Amino acid sequence: MKNPDTGKRVSRLNPASEWMRKEVPHLRIVSDELWADAKQRQEKGRKAIRTAGNPRGARRPHYLFSGLTKCGVCGAGSS
Q: The domain containing residue 31 runs over which residues?
């Protein structure tokens, strides 16, 4: 939608009550098991940061899925 005064586009979010959600499992690119593992790891990282007392000093992976992929031959971590 454009603002009539400025001519610039203005974005507005639809209210949550108007959202339409639908499960589409065939479009998923991450399995449910991997998603659950990632969420568990994410929560473990949050707890570590809370207990560390210094959130900036706590070490955590730069990417969410770091360390979750493994070599199919030797089992070594690939990232």
A: 26-52
Nearest CA-CA partner of 68 in 28, 40, 26: 40
How does pLDDT run across 14-64, given as a tens digit for each residue?
999 999 999 999 999 999 999 999 999 988 877 766 666 655 555 666 777
Structure-token pair, residue 30: 């991450």
Q: How many domains does the chain have?
A: 1
Q: What is the pTM of this model?
A: 0.41
DSSP 7-58: --B---PPPGGG------GGG-SS-HHHHHHHHHHHHHHHHHHHHHS-TTT-
